[in-house]
Design goal:
about 475 residues; alpha+beta; homodimer; elongated
Chain lengths: ~475, ~475
């Protein structure tokens, strides 16, 4: 390992500056001692951080050994510990996963405490190859196959402080050689707690076995991670642009996307955009996301409006009026004016509270003119134009008015259609009113006739004449 | 295997139409019998094509068996054969590679002969997984890891007729089940010639071994190919756009790219653009292209103008005046006017043949006015503005003129610089004349002074006065 090469990585890829602290995770093995020693020789201000996972009897002794090394280098030493076995049992995690979580939690806590510029860990090219093989065996896309990054912000741990891995281009043999040259004595296999059965077997069996197919298999896979990392970056840029085009709104239990924009994307970007929406509702949902996203991509070719597509993990997809909803527990945004199954009387003056924060008001007043139109209700992206205020002919009305939802087969004689009447259900379709808003849509009834399909259309008979001086005004108010 | 699913793949992914022939490659194994039988049941017009690789004693018997099957189905049967062993030895290929080449050559020959809409082969999901693992072990990027395509134009075989692989989503077990249900008797392991040591070992040893890590490893890898295929498509679109921005011109031994456009690309696209340029000069250069492209990407960060970067396989990179050249055998485009080491006399009237198709002409004529400027010479993308015709003062000239290249330390008094003189080498730098064009750049000499740096600048002393009626006109003509 050449110091010049490392220096270049530290400056140009890890973006480390000489004058702000770095928290270095040091297990005491050859990799982390090499990292610590080389950073120290380059005069970076370091905090040596060791986490005692308490998984092996000699772990406390290891911690003392690392403390001694820090002391010899005159560096600040911090130690953390936790009952990883209990944590694993409690959170239903593998020992390895629990150990990882506890360790990173500790490292980033220290980093925040000392306002560090970065947390540095000693993953090597070998670790990179092992990680990628693990991803491959467990199922991965480009993001998994590109392996770990030399510098990354991981929001799971901290939104600002990056995790840097300066040794990702360095092979384990090189860190061991470094230790030998600089007379550092690595602890005997201190990271073995980390190599659970799967990773250990992979390291000691699978890779040597693969070398019987190609002696350079490690180098070949490492190179692959480099190339795929570049490809991934390009793709991530495209995904971001696609997301910006498709995304409309997030709610607590749903995201709304622009349906045709999503459909127009190539499959790869459709998957990525859907995965991003799924990630928001189910962060870290890795193992089942292929089938889940695939189902949604297939369904998107001909989405059935008004029908749920059940995905998995309590997630669904819903299409409606040019919008695509990714939901959990069938929760859709519902912001339309709605009314329950009961009839309600509306006096003049008077008002009726509707659902979703809407109110219907009636008053008698002088005629002013045309209804107040033109406001687009943004309910989950719906695009129905509502008349928020209308004037009705008092002579035509039977008071008090009744407000209720539609009845089966109910008909309407809409204003401006030459007295023709039509089924209210057809009228709703013509208005592009989402199906789920129809059953509870409030109607203002005069006697037995529909005087106003709230917000949508007057009945022909109730229109105001040019000679009327006084009108009954109905108003739909939100909020 | 459901017929409906296959029908969908045939129509929607393979884009097959019912009324144009399809050449089906049939070895006689379960996979190809299943493909043949299912296509036949769907009434596609088929040609059964069998290639006898002559690698096993029973291969002629296999061919007869396939012919019988075709006859029973009342389908046209065509057979090819070749001495694959000799071809492999002659072309320095592996047996597997030689067999593949011979077979596809035959299949596409038949396809052209019968104006087929496609060549269909019976690769299954198992083949896909094996192929991807093989690529992984030998080193691959996204293009290798995505595996084979269900439909692809392979210019190596034909520029129009696609190769389709309708069974890529079907597992080998399914094709065997199909054969059992439809009472087809596959030949015993007829493709074994194809499973050379590497692939055979991979199928019978590696995959079962990997299943001990994850029993679903085959499915997991197959899914990966699906996802990566989508990612690759997105990336390919980006690469095409990047290429359009960067590419300037191709020559027989070089491609010219726009240097800063290439530098401005993210690493992933830089690699892809360079790989595309490399591919053109060295098609199929797979194994060494990672290091090769990587070296070029690193060099691009600070390209040394006027110095070759040696890649490999006889390829080089060269940067010059905002242009990036990918060359073989150091061959750069040279289209500038150039002259050899000897002096040449230029009489008036008269002409001198220069190199690269240029001619220098002199004549005496009436004064017309300003020199003819404004033509940008596209030589390999160079951007020097040439004066193609100038007028000189006959009184100032010593005839005959001499045309030659520069001498060490030679100086010039350029027109319009108030009589100051400067080194010709500095003048060339100011003109942004590529270094390699300088040593052979033709100068027109009057006595011992530079009268015209051809195409670039008159000497101050030789300018025409407003009172001159007659001038000596020098003209630079290309082609």
């Amino acid at each position: 390992m050449e110091a010049v090469r490392l220096q270049k990585i530290l400056q140009e890829t890890c973006l480390l500056v000489p004058d702000r602290p770095i928290v270095v995770g040091v297990s005491g093995g050859a990799d982390s001692l090499c990292l610590l020693d080389s950073l120290h020789r380059l005069d970076y201000p370091l905090w040596v951080a060791h986490f005692d996972h308490g998984l092996r009897p000699e772990s406390a002794e290891d911690a003392r050994a690392v403390a001694r090394i820090a002391q010899e280098m005159r560096l600040k030493f911090v130690m953390g510990s936790g009952d990883v076995r209990a944590m694993a049992a409690q959170a239903g995690l593998s020992l390895e996963e629990a150990a990882r979580k506890a360790r990173y939690h500790f490292l980033f806590e220290q980093a925040r405490a000392c306002q560090a510029q970065a947390v540095a860990v000693a993953h090597t090219a070998n670790d990179q190859v092992e990680t990628v093989l693990m991803h491959l065996l467990r199922g991965a896309g480009l993001n998994g196959l590109r392996g770990m990054s030399t510098r990354a912000i991981l929001p799971e741990w901290d939104a600002q402080i990056p995790l840097v891995r300066p040794l990702l281009e360095i092979w384990r043999e090189e860190t061991e050689a470094w230790c030998a040259v600089h007379q550092l004595t690595p602890l005997r296999d201190p990271t073995n707690w980390d190599t659970t059965f799967f990773r250990n077997r992979l390291r000691h069996e699978l890779i040597p076995y693969l070398q019987s197919y190609n002696p350079n298999v490690k180098e070949v896979i490492w190179r692959m991670t480099q190339v795929l990392g570049g490809d991934w970056e390009v793709l991530a840029g495209e995904v971001e642009r696609a997301w910006q085009r498709c995304w409309l709104r997030d709610g607590p239990h749903w995201s709304v996307l622009h349906l045709t924009q999503v459909q127009d994307l190539p499959d790869g970007l459709q998957r990525a955009v859907l995965r991003r929406a799924v990630d928001r509702l189910r962060p870290g949902l890795r193992d089942i996301d292929f089938g889940l996203v695939e189902r949604a991509v297939n369904w998107l070719r001909e989405p059935a409006s008004g029908h749920w597509l059940e995905l998995a993990a309590g997630l669904q997809v819903w299409a409606e009026e040019g919008r695509l909803y990714i939901t959990e527990n069938h929760q859709l945004p519902q912001e339309w004016p709605q009314i329950g199954p009961k009839e309600v009387l509306l006096t003049v003056p008077g008002e009726v509270r509707l659902e979703q924060g809407w109110t219907l008001r009636a008053e008698r007043r002088a005629r002013r003119g045309n209804p107040e139109r033109g406001q687009l209700v943004a309910a989950g992206g719906g695009r129905v134009l509502l008349e928020l205020s209308v004037e009705l002919n008092p002579q035509a009305l039977v008071l008090p008015l009744i407000v209720r939802a539609l009845r089966p087969g109910e008909r309407l004689t809409p204003l401006g259609m030459g007295g023709h009447h039509m089924k209210l259900s057809d009228f709703f379709v013509n208005c592009k009113l989402p199906q789920r808003a129809r059953a509870g849509w409030p109607l203002v009834i005069s006697g037995t006739e529909i005087a106003w399909v709230t917000g949508l259309r007057l009945g022909e008979k109730f229109k105001v004449n040019a000679t009327d001086l006084e009108v009954i005004c109905l108003e739909l108010v939100q909020g």
